[in-house]
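Researcher: We're teaching a course module on how sequence relates to structure. For the next exercise, students receive a sequence and then see the predicted structure as tokens, so they can try to spot secondary structure elements on their own. Here is the exercise chain.
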Amino acid sequence: MKRYALPLLLSAFLFIPTIAKAEMAPEQKKEIETLVHQYVLNNGGLLIESVNKFQAAEEIKANKDSEVKAVEFMKTIKDDKNLNIVGNPDGDVTVVEFFDYNCGYCKKALEEIQSLLKDDKNVVADLFGASRTPEVFVIGKDNTILYHGRITDNKVASEQKSQDLKIAVEEISSGKNVSVKETKSFGCGIKRIEK
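Model: And here is the predicted structure for the students to work with:
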């Protein structure tokens, strides 16, 4: 509450410089300041009401701005063929995730995100012929599959000898052809939903 009180108190004193231009005596200025101060102390609810009204208006404005940005974003992801999109493109919601494989929290949150991104009615899994989780398809700008398979060669991190997905992505990013285009994925089988 204190952080809002100062700007409001300052705005209450905005009229004083105007009055002061009329060559107000110091005693008159002090008397007006005392009256305003006393009024603010006696009517503190007005300050709270004013802050609440201001915050509500700001929230409405922020929501409108967010809606405009969401519409722009949805148009962009539908039009931009360079974006990585997973899941059902005709799903009820769109989830945008910025993920860092080196971030400990991202690693912990992965399971929850994956549960939210379930392939509704196996639309995408059927399209690709995917059979395992995790099973990765890296798709190029021209919509060709540049890499298909596993993320690494072993579930146990200390026993991994090849980080297949990372190698493929690094090769693509540096403009090279992917040296190993397909690997055998392993993990849990994708359970198909009856249609």
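Model: If you want an answer key for the exercise: The first strand starts at residue 132 and ends at 133. Helices lie at 2-12, 15-20, 26-42, 44-79, 104-116, 123-128, 164-173.
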